[in-house]
Amino acid sequence: MPIARPPREPPPVRRHEPEGVACHGTILMPGLRYHGTPMSSDRVTLEVSERGAAQLGSRRVRRLRKEGLVPGVLYGKGHARAIVVNERSLRTALTGPSGLHAIVDVVIEGQTTPHHAVLKDFQRHPIRGTLTHVDFHEVRLDRPIQATVSLELVGESPGSKQGGSVQLVSRELQVEALPTGIPEHVELDISGLELGVTLRVEDLSPIEGVTFLDDPQLVLATCTVPRGLTELEEGAAEGEGEGEDAEAAEGGDAAEASDEGAAAAED
C-alpha cells in the first residue's frame, strides 16, 4: 500500500515567510521571533501526516528531509505520535503574529478534529538553516502552561545620561499563563534606573493572567558606573582634598609668621 505523505504544495497559510531559521532551542529562536504585542491567541492550522513504520529510522528520515518534509512528534496525554509535515507550511505557521507562542491546530491527515498544541522543541540544519525536526505538545486551552519568554528593556535610563552603563543581566523569564495568554516577551521599564540602581523581578509591571515564576529578587538589569568614570571622580576628589590641605597649610604658615612678627615687636 502506498505511503501517505502530505502534499508537496499544500494550501498556503496566511503568514509571512521567514528569511532564516535560528538555532536549536525550545522556545526562543531569533530567526522566527515576533516583537509585537504579546499574546498567542492567534490560531494557525497545520496539516500533518502520521508516520508509519516505513517512515521511521535515520535513512528514511533523511529521505523525507530531501523531499522537503520535516519529521516530528506530537506529544499528548499518554501518547506520542510520529508525524511528518511540509517544511514550508511549518515555517509559515511559526512566523505569524504570535510567533513561536501561537496555538497550532494540528490536523492529522484523515482526521477532522484538530489537536491544540504549542511548539515544544525544534532543530535546524547547521549549514542550510532548514528545519530538520519539530516537537509539538498538546494543551488544553482552559489550563495554564509554563513557558520561557524573552525580556526586553523599554525607556531611557537617567543613569545612562550621566555616563552609566545599563546591563541586561537576565535575558529570559519563566512565566505561567493560559496557552492563549503566554506573552511573546516581557518589558522592563528602565526610565527610573539611576546610577548604581538594580532592577529585579519584583520591579516588573504586572501582566493580567500571567504569573512570574522566577525569584522576585532575581536581578534583571543594573546601571553601573564605568571604571574610567569612577577613576576620574576619585582623581577629582583627591585633587580637591589636596587643595584643601594646601590651603590649610598656607593658613597655618601665615598665622605662625604673624605670631613671630608680634613677638619681635614686643622685644
Can you walk through the features of this model?
The chain folds into 2 domains: 30-139, Ribosomal Protein L25, Chain P; 146-224, Ribosomal protein L25, C-terminal domain (RNA Polymerase Alpha Subunit, Chain A, domain 2, Beta Complex), CATH 2.170.120. Helix content is 22%, strand content 31%. It is built from 4 helices and 13 strands. Strands 1-3-2-6-5-4 form a 6-stranded mixed beta barrel. A 4-stranded mixed β-sheet has the order 10-7-9-12, with no helix packed on it. It is elongated and about 80 Å long. The relative contact order is 0.13. Residues 1-39 have low confidence and may be disordered.
Rounded mean pLDDT is: 75
Number of domains: 2
The CATH level-2 architecture of the largest domain is identified as Beta Barrel
Q: Could you give the distance between the termini?
A: 132 Å
Structural class: alpha+beta
Side by side, the strands of the main sheet go 1-3-2-6-5-4
Count of β-strands: 13
Number of helical runs?
4
Order of helices and strands: EHEEHEEEEHEEEEEEH
CATH superfamily of the largest domain: Ribosomal Protein L25, Chain P
Q: Tell me the radius of gyration.
A: 31 Å
Main sheet: strands, sense, barrel: 6 strands, mixed, barrel
Reported by name, the CATH topology of the largest domain is Ribosomal Protein L25, Chain P
| Highest-level CATH class of the largest domain | Mainly Beta
Helix content: 10-25%
User: How would the global form be characterised?
Assistant: elongated
Portion in beta strands: 25-35%
Uncertain parts = 1-39
